[in-house]
Write a structure and sequence with these properties.
about 160 residues; alpha+beta; 4 helices; globular
């Protein structure tokens, strides 16, 4: 019986901080056997990963999947370029959006969905430093408001600075 659900292997938390996500896509990843075995152990890193569109195909570059410890001479190269599997219309849409200006393809997470390895790919635009500061300030303000609501609900209302 196949396993059901979604099991996250790796996430790129830095991507949401450095980029403004425009749209997300789910793509399959073409892998070899020892890569899948290494991923089942939860070993992968999306830190330097990015995607490119070359000759009508989408490629994932910089993804680090360490060699499988029990592998033999058939083991894989840890940072090899891997093909992403998308529908033709999705690829054409991505080609148009990345060419028209400033957008890039960033992997957000790598996970198992119904036994298959999938990559959540984001069409994103880079944030500037002041955008990042605004996001941090907004997050802090929201956190303070939630704390105040929590205190009021518990009957311990204090003055908010």
């Amino acid at each position: 019986m196949k396993e059901q659900g979604r099991k996250v292997i790796a996430q790129n938390r830095r991507a949401r901080h450095d980029y403004a996500v425009i749209d997300t896509y789910e793509a399959g990843v073409a892998l070899v056997g020892t890569e899948v075995k290494s991923l089942r152990l939860g070993r992968a890193s999306l830190v330097d990963a990015y995607a490119t569109v070359d000759d009508g195909e989408v490629w994932l570059r910089g993804l680090h999947i360490p060699e499988y410890t029990h592998g033999s001479w058939t083991n894989h190269e840890p940072r090899r370029t891997r093909k992403l599997l998308l529908h033709r219309k999705e690829i054409e849409r991505l080609i148009g959006k990345t060419r028209e200006g400033g957008a890039t393809l960033v992997p957000l997470s790598l996970y198992f969905a119904n036994g298959k390895v999938k990559c959540e790919l984001a069409l994103a635009r880079g944030k500037r430093t002041f955008d990042k500061r605004q996001d941090l300030a907004r997050r802090d303000a929201d956190r303070d408001v939630q704390r105040a609501f929590g205190r009021a609900a518990k009957g311990r209302m204090r003055e908010v600075r």
